[in-house]
Amino acid sequence: MTSLLIRGSRLFDGTGAAERRADVLLVEGAIAAVAAPGTLSRVAADRVVDADGLALAPGFIDAHSHADSVPFLPGIDASKISQGVTTEVVGNCGFSLAPHPADRSSEIQEMCGRLFPSLPYDWSTTAELYERTDHAGYTVTPFRSWGTTLSALP
Fold first, then answer.
1. Which of 64, 133, 147, 148 has the most CB within a 10 Å radius?
2. Would you give the end-to-end CA distance of the chain in angstroms?
3. In whole angstroms, what is the distance from residue 30 CA to residue 12 CA?
């Protein structure tokens, strides 16, 4: 089990409540406890971060992103994560990288070329696209409309 204790942060919890100082314990990437500073001091966490004077907030969701092709770009695109975005919703402009009939890949490539760099388009089903993007890796968590998400890269 992996755990992280963030101590003494200025917590902005996303509910609209006023900021407050807090310790936050994460276990396996999920929030396990939020308590007043010092309350969780006896918790044996794998890693402890002193966040005194720093702000802590939940990850932000970009509900309309054109980052469908980011896993195919060379290197890691940290532009969103550096702004606090941890989840992006893609494929919501009336078209997406998948699914498409295999014999129409060139048409899809031409249409998507307006937004995305040149891609191999060697997939036709959504499962095939996910297989390729999963293999390439992510900087932020992709939101999949059928309810599955992947953990963001460390």
1. 133
2. 15
3. 17
pTM of the model: 0.63
Rounded-to-integer distance, Cα 60 and Cα 80, Å: 9
3-state secondary structure of 115: coil
Largest CA distance in the chain: 61
* Exposure b/e, 18-47, CB count within 10 A at least 16 = b: eeebbbbbbbeeeeeebeebeebeebebee
- Residues of the chain where predicted confidence (pLDDT) is lower than 70: 1, 141-154
101 residue type, one letter: P
